[in-house]
User: Fold this.
Amino acid sequence: MPQNNLNKMHNGRQFEKVEGLAPYDLFEMANLSPTRTGIGGVVIYCGRADDDGQHSPYRIKVSVGKAWGASRKVFSIGTEDKIKGHWFAVQGSEYRNEADAPADLLNRVRKFIDLNQALLKEWVEYDGLEDASERFVPRVKPITG
Assistant:
């Protein structure tokens, strides 16, 4: 097998890369709208990516006002264990540290994590491919209040 088609592992399963992408890469993220999360003005991205250990998969990305990549107001926040609720900077963001992000927004995101923690963990650890989003997104609980 050519070097650029090396197999990729996820949760103990092996997938062959196709033209530089593993099949798993196509199903690695769910985008949650304000309607799904109950948090107005933001899109939350729940990733499952195996990025060779650069980041914990137990985190979500939050983009304020626009889609990820289009907004400069973005951050990442942990969802599990030691990093739960921990704020992480994203390169290029206007939010250089936690104090730059609106406190109310951070509180609402942490409330969303508390409400959906088991589901967020299941999303990261689910080893299926084709129906991953269909299994996950409808079960997300929006925050209220």
